[in-house]
Amino acid sequence: MRAQHSRKRRSGRAVAAMAAGVVTAAAVTAGLLLTGAGGHNPPARSRAALASQTKHGRPATAGKSDSGVTLLAALRGATGRYASPDGARIGSVPGSWYGARSVLPVISTRPGWLLVRLAQRPNGSTGWIQESNVQLLSTPYRIVVDLATTQLMLYFRGRELFSAPAGVGTVSDPTPPGDYFVAFYEAPPSPGYGAFIMVTSAHSEAISDWEGSGDAVIGIHGPLGGAALIGADGARISHGCIRLKDNALARLRVVPAGTPIDIVD
After folding, report:
1. Which residues of the chain have pLDDT under 50?
2. How far is CA 262 from the centre of its chain?
3. Among residues 116, 111, 118, which one has the least CA distance to residue 132?
4. With contact defined as beta carbons under 8 Å apart, do 179 and 59 qualify?
5. Does one domain contain both 85 and 152?
6. How many angstroms separate the CA atoms of 64 and 30, rounded?
7. Of 139, 159, 190, at which residue does a domain stop?
8. Whether this model's pTM surpasses 0.85
9. Closest by alpha carbon to 54, among 104, 127, 106?
10. What is the pLDDT of residue 106?
11. What pLDDT does residue 129 have?
12. Under 8 Å between Cβ of 177 and 168
């Protein structure tokens, strides 16, 4: 299904490209299930508490308060990206990505400023934005994907809700470890993907341009070739995306955009 000799894939249909295990830019724009911010709008007292706890967290938990709740910034539109609070402007953060509103996890705060994770390449991108340009939300959920054990775990307020075997990237096309988040949901192009595709902010480090789409975004979706390929313990079977059995995928639908995803190895 893919050219073994090239890391930049030839052009082709979006659905066929997605079957290889990465989400293409063309397929992402095909039909969004969720274009709103999602998340919860915390009361003023809760927002203040979250902001006070969102300072200099450890890399694996940055942006998560002691209660397991993460502060989110739902952009009202495109806004400036800064290297530091009151520092030089180094670009802009789009108000939407593939048609869905940008809802970004906050990993640090300063008066009037928020340090957020970004959905665009390169992986791990962050930027300071002005708080006046966002709607503050929160999420009590967190997803952890353990590449070593090929398991996905969902947490609610720091408590594990469930763990499920996952199909992750192969050695040649690995799932990239790092701190990411749920960007938005999209409709599946075929039943093999399950009820929906959760599009993440992660991008393949091995594939820069799948089938001429311009990107190779990591998604969380159904089992494609069948649940047996994932097995009881998970497996390395995809080109970067994370595959779940349909019943496990369905349990993720409550998770709002902006929810942190930690991919660990």
Report:
1. 1-20, 25-27, 29-37, 43-48, 52-64
2. 9
3. 111
4. yes
5. no
6. 32
7. 139
8. no
9. 106
10. 98
11. 98
12. no
Same domain, 100 and 166: no
pLDDT (0 to 100) of residue 50: 55
Residue 226's pLDDT is what?
A: 83
Looking at the fold, whether 188 and 239 belong to one and the same domain comes out as yes
164 with 217, same domain: the answer is yes
Q: What is the pLDDT of residues 131-183, one digit of tens each?
A: 999 999 999 999 999 999 999 999 999 999 999 999 999 999 999 999 999 99
Please give the single-letter amino acid code of residue 31.
G
Looking up tokens 């079977």 gives 237
Residue 50, CA distances (Å) to 55, 113, 140, 235, 250 in order:
9, 14, 11, 37, 29
Range of the domain at 199: 14-34+141-264
**Same structural domain for residues 52 and 183?**
no
User: Cα–Cα distance between 238 and 41 in angstroms, integer?
Assistant: 36
Structure tokens, 24 = 């293409």
